[in-house]
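Handout, section B. The chain below has 136 residues.
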Amino acid sequence: MTTYKQAAKAVAWVVFFHIIGLIALYSWYPGYDIFMHFAGGVAMALLAFAIFDHQIKGVTFKSKQTWVKRLFYFFVVVGFVMLIGVAWEWHEFISDQLLAPFFHWTIPAQPSVADTMKDLFDDFLGAVCVVLWRGL
């Protein structure tokens, strides 16, 4: 069972490492973005499980087969993570369009469509790792 406290700790660590990345690591080491998206996927998956474990614990399934429940949890958790991932990519796009010219940032947060797809894939991998770790 994942608690909100565990999810909040994971999110706090991701925010902490993102701030460290903004200071120097994103421009110094481009692969840092991969780690951050993977970690973000992990943190958001933990948040999704915390929501499930504490808010939707009364959900019942008509099917008695456990694979139906597992598949449902997989798609809902991964879908939640991907929704957050797409929102983050919109954040990067808006930052590049509005903030970068104002602050004279030279390195775009979203340099290409390929980078966006890679970022979403990294989010997905983080979510899948948590789902597998939870034993669904």
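Note. The mean pLDDT is 89. Compare this with the example in section A.
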